[in-house]
């Protein structure tokens, strides 16, 4: 990972994106998305992850996160390792996964090309954490995260994407709890 993209200051919030190798559209199945949500929740409860925003797209994830307890690099490492193992197992065991052989072959191929892995690689190596030091950048990234499914043409309104914290920000029941940022500043641009 480049020196430009690292978790440097644990007192800051970060915008983080990470994607499945080969940009595989893995998250078209509810079971796979639920593995991510459970992992986010676990990290909130046991590792001190502060989750402010998230959006699970078909091939990638966007987050705004922080932590006052554990170093962010450690949380992301553990989150990606755990979800990688759980998702790999879920793909292998899914009785209706029509793309199983193709996906497993791509994951194995990616893993064999990277000495940091044992047998397979699910996530791309980069997280690209960006410090959100000012309100302008923070709310620009928050809006970007929530507008992502709209820009992709999946939904017309941000709050209609079930696997996003936009629901929480629009006063609807979200799938998991997030710490809301100041609502008076959150505007759609």
TrEMBL record:
Transmembrane listed as a keyword: yes
Transmembrane portions of the chain: 12-28
InterPro entries: RAYT_transposase (IPR052715), Transposase_17 (IPR002686), Transposase_17_sf (IPR036515)
Lineage: superkingdom: Bacteria
Keyword Transmembrane helix part of the UniProt annotation: yes
UniProt GO BP: DNA transposition
SUPFAM superfamilies assigned: Transposase IS200-like (SSF143422)
Residue span, Transposase IS200-like domain: 9-148
Record keywords, A-Z: Membrane, Transmembrane, Transmembrane helix
Protein name, as recorded: Transposase
Lineage, opening ranks: Bacteria, Pseudomonadati, Bacteroidota, Chitinophagia, Chitinophagales
């Amino acid at each position: 990972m480049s020196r430009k993209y690292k978790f440097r200051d644990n007192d800051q919030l970060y915008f983080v994106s990470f994607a499945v190798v080969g940009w595989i559209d893995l998250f078209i199945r509810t079971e796979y998305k639920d593995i991510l949500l459970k992992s986010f929740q676990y990290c909130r409860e046991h590792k001190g992850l502060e989750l402010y925003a998230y959006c699970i797209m078909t091939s990638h994830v966007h987050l705004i996160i922080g932590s006052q307890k554990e170093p962010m690099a450690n949380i992301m490492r553990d989150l990606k390792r755990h979800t990688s193992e759980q998702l790999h197992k879920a793909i292998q065991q899914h009785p209706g996964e029509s793309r199983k052989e193709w996906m497993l072959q791509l994951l194995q191929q990616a893993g064999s090309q990277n000495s940091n892995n044992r047998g397979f690689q699910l996530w791309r190596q980069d997280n690209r954490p960006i410090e959100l030091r000012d309100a302008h950048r923070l709310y620009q990234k928050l809006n970007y995260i929530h507008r992502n499914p709209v820009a992709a043409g999946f939904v017309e309104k941000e709050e209609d994407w079930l696997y996003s914290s936009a629901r929480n920000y629009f006063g609807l029941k979200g799938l998991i709890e997030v710490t809301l940022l100041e609502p008076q500043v959150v505007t759609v641009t």
